[in-house]
Amino acid sequence: MFGFERLEVWHKAVDYAGTIYSVTRTFPEEERFGLTSQLRRSSVSISSNIAEGSSRSSRVDFNRFIEIAYGSLLESVSELRIAQNQKFVPSTVFESTYKQAEELARMLSGLRRTIKPRVKSKPLNTKLSTLNTK
Hints:
- This protein is 69% helix and 0% strand.
- By secondary structure, it is mostly helical.
- The longest helix is centred in the middle third of the chain and has 27 residues, at 59-85.
- The relative contact order is 0.15.
């Protein structure tokens, strides 16, 4: 088992992508290369970035991948709203999927707080102030 597979947030992200795939199956055929594809890619990107970030050797790198996953989640929510506005998604389906996205957002934020790098403040480099740029 890989380390990321132990993360509940990764499992929730995979579930969310599955929901998005189900929702987009009912989209019009002409959206296959448009909104359907975009929504699916952004939702898959969430779990993919969690997995990839978990392989990084530093907290800073892992944190960056979690930020990217969060951005992909927000992208999918925006696309889902557009789909609802176009009447591709019934209100009840939109609301349940939106709640799933909210839960995932909270979990990603919590993970970011957990892995946030602890940075010690360093004094300013005094040599820089002595440089003469004449």
